[in-house]
Design a protein that fits this description.
Keywords: Signal
Structural class: mainly alpha
Radius of gyration: 26 Å
Largest sheet: 2 strands, antiparallel
Order of helices and strands: HHHHHHHEHHHEHHHH
Strand content: under 5%
Number of helices: 14
Organism: Mailhella massiliensis
Helix content: 40-55%
InterPro entries: Lysozyme-like_dom_sf (IPR023346), MltB-like (IPR043426), SLT_2 (IPR031304)
GO molecular function: peptidoglycan lytic transglycosylase activity
GO biological process, one term: peptidoglycan catabolic process
Length: 333
């Protein structure tokens, strides 16, 4: 009897504790999916999904959007770190600066004289005899790849080599980020609260949060499309997304293609059944295919050649630097 009474009292004491436990555990809020959690998974607050749940939701969305389930689950199971604020933070800073921070009064452009007949200015330190020789040595080392691409697409080998030099120093610098991780992070970073280290440094940002949030949504949606294209490319060509270096915004390979450009312009240059933009043969054929399909043809003036190169990168200095370096290569003894 005494034991029975003790048991009843113990059960009554347990009831309020159980009720408190349930009341203090609200469900995660869907609008916080992009948040970066600083605490560990075990210590993460219940008011927002943990970063593992963030990746799980992104994985599920990609599967619903047609990506192979087994491949997608396996890839995101290996992603063992929270979203990085870097890609969205840098992009927001760039957009905000251009929109709201006054620019210093532009100075009159300096005169730029050249014996090459290519407008300037050019990227500093790129158009040199030393770099032209590096390009020529690279062309000689991969002579078959350049000859094949020039024959098939009509892009001068010097232009293709100069573009590779400007983009990645002929493959020596492929970017310091993992393209899969950067695009995944950008795709889930949709709220200014996710990038406080960037927002807090923007003057007047507290009054522009709706504008910032709108821009973040646009860029997150863009990153999602690039992420889907990247994973589709990796699966189709049996490539590991975790071994794919790229830019902060996910451009990959020697030719720095955005993933959505790969199905449109990517070429298997060496015929091995794989489009691998980290392979010289494929990168040279792919960039040559891109330029040809965007208007390059024999007999174009320098101005029209520059116009085609600006479809690759919109800056005048980019196009003019490539043309000047290509001409320097051509004039080597």
């Amino acid at each position: 009897m005494r034991f029975f009474l003790y048991s009843i009292v113990l059960c009554l004491l347990m009831l309020p504790l159980s009720a408190c436990s349930k009341a203090s555990s609200p469900q995660p809020s869907p609008d916080r999916i992009g948040s970066v959690e600083n605490s560990s998974a075990d210590e993460a607050p219940f008011t927002a999904p943990s970063w593992r749940e963030t990746w799980s939701r992104l994985s599920a969305t990609l599967q619903k959007d047609g990506l192979d389930e087994e491949f997608t689950l396996e890839v995101f199971a290996r992603l063992d770190m929270p979203p990085s604020p870097i890609p969205m933070g840098i992009k927001v800073r760039e957009l905000y600066t251009n929109a709201f921070i006054p620019k210093p009064k532009a100075r009159p452009p300096k005169s730029f004289e050249t014996k090459l007949g290519i407008p300037g200015p050019w990227f500093k330190g790129v158009v040199t005899t030393k770099n032209a020789k590096l390009c020529r040595d690279f062309m000689n080392k991969h002579a078959v790849a350049f000859a094949r691409a020039e024959l098939n697409y009509g892009i001068p080998s010097e232009v293709a080599a100069a573009l590779l030099f400007v983009e990645t120093r002929l493959g020596e610098y492929l970017g310091k980020h993992n393209a899969f991780y950067m695009l995944s992070s950008m795709a889930v970073t949709r709220d200014p609260d996710s990038i406080p280290e960037y927002i807090n440094k923007l003057p007047g940002a507290e009054d522009k949060l709706p504008w910032i949030r709108g821009k973040m949504k646009i860029k997150a949606d863009w990153a999602y499309k690039e992420l889907k294209a990247l994973l589709s490319y990796c699966r189709a060509n049996h490539l590991d997304p975790f071994k794919m270096k790229g830019s902060v915004y996910g451009a990959i390979g020697l030719c720095q293609f955005m993933p959505t450009n790969i199905p449109r312009y990517g070429v298997d240059g060496n015929g091995d059944g794989v489009i691998d933009l980290f392979c010289v043969d494929d990168a040279v054929s792919s960039l040559s295919n891109y330029l040809r399909r965007n208007g390059w043809k024999s007999g174009l003036s320098v101005q029209k050649q520059a116009r085609v190169l600006r479809t690759y990168n919109a800056m005048d200095i980019y196009a003019h630097t490539i043309l000047a370096l290509a001409k320097t290569i051509r004039q080597l003894p």
